[in-house]
Amino acid sequence: MDFQEQSLFNTLLSKFEPIAKRWMKEVLIELTHETKPENIRHSVKVTAKRNSLSEGTIRNYIKRGIIDAEKIGRRILIDESQFEKGLSEVKSLKYKR
After folding, report:
1. Distance between CA atoms of 68 and 62, rounded to whole angstroms?
2. 78 with 58: CB under 8 angstroms?
3. Of all residues in the chain, what percent carry a pLDDT higher than 90?
4. Which of 55, 56, 57, 81 is nearest to 68 (CA)?
5. Among 5-9, 47-51, 90-94, the range of highest mean pLDDT
6. pTM of full prediction above 0.70
7. Eight-class DSSP state of 18
8. What are the backbone angles phi and psi of residue 14, rounded to the nearest 5°?
9. Exposure pattern of 19-51 as b/e (b: 16+ CB <10 Å)?
10. Strand partners, 42
11. Could you report the per-residue pLDDT of 13-57, keeping only the tens digit for each?
12. First vs last Cα of the chain: how many Å apart?
């Protein structure tokens, strides 16, 4: 590249660099918002199936206060993030025979 081409390249780069940075920032913001799930709630039955537990176990965890749940009408809905938090507190018990 000769001097004129280099000068033109540097001028264009200085003009488009702020635009490119702003665009990249907007894209990153959009990507982070899309990957963040919003309050996904499941019924007791679905939660039990997804985690290989019985419905009775899920209901017992709710009664003991290990898992937070919301009752809407007759349905009990469990927030996915609250379930994960509650399960981290549950310890496996081994029974002696």
Report:
1. 6
2. yes
3. 30
4. 81
5. 47-51
6. no
7. H
8. -65, -30
9. eeeeeeeeeeeeeeeeeeeeeebbebeebbeee
10. 78
11. 888 888 888 888 888 888 777 555 567 899 999 999 998 999 999
12. 84
List the 75-79 sheet strands across, edge first.
Answer: 41-43, 75-79, 69-72
Structure tokens at 55: 């419905």
Q: Are 66 and 89 in contact (CB under 8 A)?
A: yes
Residue showing tokens 């019924």? 43
Rounded Cα distance, 5 and 11, in Å: 10
Side chain identity at residue 64, one-letter code: R
Tell me the DSSP string of 61-97. Answer: HHHHTSS-EEEETTEEEEEHHHHHHHHHH--------
Q: What are the distances in angstroms from CA 7 to CA 11, 60, 83?
A: 6, 73, 60
Task: Tell me the CATH class for 41-89.
Answer: mainly alpha
